[in-house]
Design goal:
Layout: E1 3-10, H1 13-21, E2 30-33, E3 40-43, H2 45-49, H3 58-67, E4 71-73, H4 77-94, E5 98-102, E6 105-111, H5 115-132, E7 137-142, H6 145-157, E8 164-166, H7 172-176, H8 189-197, H9 203-207, H10 211-229, E9 248-258, H11 261-281, E10 284-295, E11 306-317, H12 320-334, E12 341-353, H13 370-383
Parallel strand pairs: 2-4, 7-8
Antiparallel strand pairs: 1-6, 1-7, 2-3, 5-6, 9-12, 10-11, 10-12
Helix pairs in contact: 4-5, 11-12
This protein binds a DNA duplex (18 and 18 nucleotides) through residues 33-39, 41, 55-60, 62, 75, 101-105, 185-191, 218-221, 245-253, 255-256, 296-298, 308, 310, 345, 347.
DNA sequence: TCTGGGGTCCTAGGACCC
DNA sequence: TCTGGGGTCCTAGGACCC
């Protein structure tokens, strides 16, 4: 039986989360900043209208934002993550087949029906989420994931549709002709630029482009995108989030440049601790780790250096202390004096489930520090991440960035529950 | 002064093997 | 005189996503 894809997407999700607990923000321009208060990663419609661009550096739009009294928030992931779960929970109650794609998006799939029936269903879902969670969403229907994305975009951008749009089959081409090729899911700025120079400017042009040409210039992924525009479904629907992640990363840009090895090691130790904690939460061990460091590429006048090193671990491990040990050694090899460093990071790869790991004949169980790590995680879960940590992560942490505009974790921390007077 | 962080997939090219 | 070719694995780099 023919099926249809739908995409539910939360409108300006992070901003909507902030508004939920501060109704005074309704109707006013609001933005949310990236992890380090560096870039703008979410904007309300009012902020978009002021011309504030996605990903723009905060300091560059500061004046404009002050002039228009834009409300600015540091990102509050515990809050967004919790509200995301609530939205996805409701969708999963209403729809049997759900494919959660990101923190604010989920595909669902249903039997192809009359457009009016799809529209009614979409309206019902939208109203239910709005009522039970309070987050506004848009829903688009199309015969492939890529077309559902386009439908969603139209639902969001053209208010007359009331947040729901079903891509019609009859004049699909006329609609695709109005979509710039760079707005198609999977076509980024680089490909977009290249396509333009070859005269492919709209989604319709891409749909009609030559397969051999696409394969050559955009690789197999670009060809798949074109096929999807033709209504041939190439992107799988993944109901179970089964193909679990293959790597765990932790990194941050520094609040101020770091020049010495010991400062870098402190920061790296802190990031390794975070990554190891994530690893243990998923009951995994890493067989390999990669350390990288880089100077500030935006500073033209300064000498630049970036490098990375991959280390195969003697045994897969999830021990913070063992991982810090190997990461520090890699860092020592990578480090060159005389540079102002901006960032270090660690990537854990070759992940194996703890239960599937090969037992090592000559390795004592206590070397894994399983009980120590379990205690560490328990304490830090209860009292906060920094309660118990490796001494190598330092105490003063001059490299640490501050998030000065963070709203409370209203829904996930007892200490920060909103108070009703 | 101040420019995110965490992921995935694909390809080309080198190393290595027989 | 004359020096293969195909398969596999690994890695770096590029592009994309939210």
């Amino acid at each position: 039986m023919a099926q249809i894809f739908a995409l539910l997407d939360c409108n300006n999700f992070y901003v909507s989360c902030e508004r939920l607990f501060s109704p005074r923000l309704e109707g006013r321009p609001v933005v949310v900043l990236s992890n380090n208060d560096g870039c703008i990663i979410a904007r309300s419609n009012e902020a978009k209208e002021l011309g504030i661009k996605m990903g723009a550096p905060f300091f560059q739009c500061r004046e404009l934002m002050e002039a228009h009294q834009v409300q600015v928030f540091s990102s509050n992931y515990p809050l967004y993550g919790d509200l995301s779960q609530r939205v996805m929970g409701i969708l999963s109650q209403l729809e049997p087949e759900v494919d959660i794609y990101s923190i604010d998006e989920a595909f669902f799939r249903q039997a192809k029906g009359k457009p009016q029936a799809l529209l009614d269903n979409g309206r019902h879902i939208r109203a239910t989420v709005r009522k039970q969670v309070g987050i506004p969403v848009s829903i688009g229907f199309g015969s492939t994931k890529t077309l559902a994305k386009i439908a969603n975009r139209i639902a969001k951008k053209q208010p007359e549709h009331g947040g729901i749009f079903v891509l019609p089959e009859e004049n699909l081409e006329a609609i695709l002709a109005t979509i710039e090729v760079g707005e198609v899911w999977g076509i980024g700025p680089r490909h977009s630029q290249k396509l333009f120079t070859y005269g492919i400017r709209t989604a319709l042009d891409l749909k009609n482009a030559n397969d051999t040409w696409l394969r050559k210039h955009l690789t197999i992924t670009g060809l798949r995108t074109a096929m999807e525009l033709r209504g041939v479904s190439c992107l799988p629907f993944e109901e179970v989030p089964a193909p679990r992640r293959k790597s765990v990363t932790s990194s941050r840009s520094f609040g101020q440049p770091v020049t010495d090895l010991s400062g870098l090691r402190e920061a790296l130790s802190a990031y390794v601790s975070i990554a190891a904690e994530k690893l243990r939460a998923e009951h995994k061990k890493a067989g390999c780790l990669q350390v990288y460091l880089t100077t500030n590429r935006f500073r033209d006048g300064e000498p630049q250096y970036a490098n990375s090193l991959t280390v195969n671990l003697p045994n897969p491990t999830a021990s913070t202390l063992a991982l810090i040990h190997h990461a520090s050694e890699a860092l020592r090899q990578l480090y060159r004096p005389g540079f102002s460093y901006r960032k270090v990071g660690v990537i854990l790869v070759d992940l194996v489930a703890s239960s599937h790991e090969q037992q090592h004949l000559f390795r004592a169980k206590h070397e894994e520090q399983g009980e120590l790590m379990a205690a560490l995680d328990k304490i830090n879960r209860r009292w906060g991440r920094d309660t118990l940590q490796s001494g190598s992560a330092g105490f003063k942490r001059p490299w640490k960035n501050k998030q000065t505009r963070k709203s409370p974790s209203y829904t996930t921390s007892w200490h920060e529950l909103p108070v009703v007077r």
